[in-house]
């Protein structure tokens, strides 16, 4: 795990850098990616061997599913595609939930009234809990309305995934400027979240701003949207909610 952590840290530093020379962050990221491939390849080989020999397994993991999946023409994924998916999934969750949770705690410390209201919500949920129940349930997490707004406000202010790469499928005209078909485009999320025409006082931490606000399509993008919405969206919010739930109960 420590080796994976080191490789992913270097990969993340270089993934958005320009490929200038062999000492650039981009070059280092490509080098670390090759190391990650060398780590994952034996895992893929081992799971395929088990599958070919029909060895029973306690449960299927992500690699098993990727080895079995077929497209509409019956074509399976090759090793390069499988490893790309594994690298992507681990990278997408690398530090992101922990990073946003850290900012949650910073904003809560700086805004005691928000902390007080969020803490009261969690204590009320615990008071209504059956005596023999241990830990939070999914139903309780769905009832954490104000905490959800706290997390959304943090996601909006911090915007951990601040940019995505896209390619124009057709000529696109934006304010008389034409982006030709096939051009690569960087879509920046942060300017949307900090636009005062969309959000009142966008640089102020105010979860209550969501009380009477339903963000319009395309204006709340911390985890993407539509078919490109982060597949770990619900898991990330669940992890953050559970951490903050226990923080409110055990911290004054």
| Integer tally of domains | 2
**Annotation field: number of helices:** 10
Under CATH at level 1, the class of the largest domain stands as Mainly Alpha
Helix % is 40-55%
- How would you describe the shape? globular
The beta-strand count equals 4
Question: Largest sheet at a glance?
Answer: 2 strands, antiparallel
Mean pLDDT: 87
Structural class: mainly alpha
Strand content: 5-15%
Annotated CATH topology of the largest domain = Cytochrome p450
The strand order across the widest sheet is: 1-4
What does this protein look like?
There is one protein chain. With 252 residues, the protein is mainly alpha-helical. The protein folds into 2 domains: 2-92, no CATH class; 96-250, Cytochrome p450. The chain is built from 10 helices and 4 strands, in the order H-H-H-H-H-H-H-H-E-E-E-E-H-H. It has helices spanning 2-14, 25-52, 62-68, 79-92, 96-110, 112-127, 138-142, 145-158, 190-193, 233-250; strands spanning 163-167, 172-174, 177-179, 184-188. The strands form 2 sheets. Strands 1-4 form a two-stranded antiparallel sheet. A hairpin with a 2-residue loop joins strand 2 and strand 3 (177-179). The chain is globular and about 55 Å long. It starts with a helix and ends with a helix. The mean pLDDT is 87.
């Amino acid at each position: 795990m420590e080796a994976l952590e080191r490789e992913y840290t270097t990969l993340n530093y270089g993934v958005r850098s320009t490929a200038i020379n062999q000492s650039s962050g981009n070059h280092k990221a490509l080098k670390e990616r090759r190391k990650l491939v060398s780590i994952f390849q034996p895992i893929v080989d081992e799971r395929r061997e088990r599958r070919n020999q029909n060895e029973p397994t306690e449960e299927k993991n992500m690699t098993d599913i990727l080895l079995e999946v077929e497209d509409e023409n019956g074509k399976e994924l090759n090793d390069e595609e499988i490893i790309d998916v594994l690298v992507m999934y681990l990278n997408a969750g690398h530090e992101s939930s922990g990073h946003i949770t850290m900012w949650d705690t910073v904003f809560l410390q700086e805004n005691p009234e928000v902390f007080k209201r969020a803490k009261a919500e969690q204590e009320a949920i615990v008071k209504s809990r059956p005596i023999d129940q241990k830990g939070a349930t999914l139903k309780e997490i769905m009832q954490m309305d104000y905490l959800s707004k706290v997390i959304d406000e943090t996601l909006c202010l911090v915007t951990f995934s601040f940019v995505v790469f896209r390619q124009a499928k057709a000529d696109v005209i934006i304010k008389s400027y034409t982006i030709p078909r096939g051009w690569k485009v960087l879509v920046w999320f942060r300017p949307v979240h900090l636009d005062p025409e969309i959000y009142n006082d966008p640089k102020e931490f105010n979860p209550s701003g969501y009380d009477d606000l339903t963000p319009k399509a395309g204006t709340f993008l911390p985890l993407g949207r539509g078919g490109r919405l982060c597949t770990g969206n619900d898991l990330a919010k669940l992890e953050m909610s559970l951490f903050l739930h226990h923080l409110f109960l055990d911290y004054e």
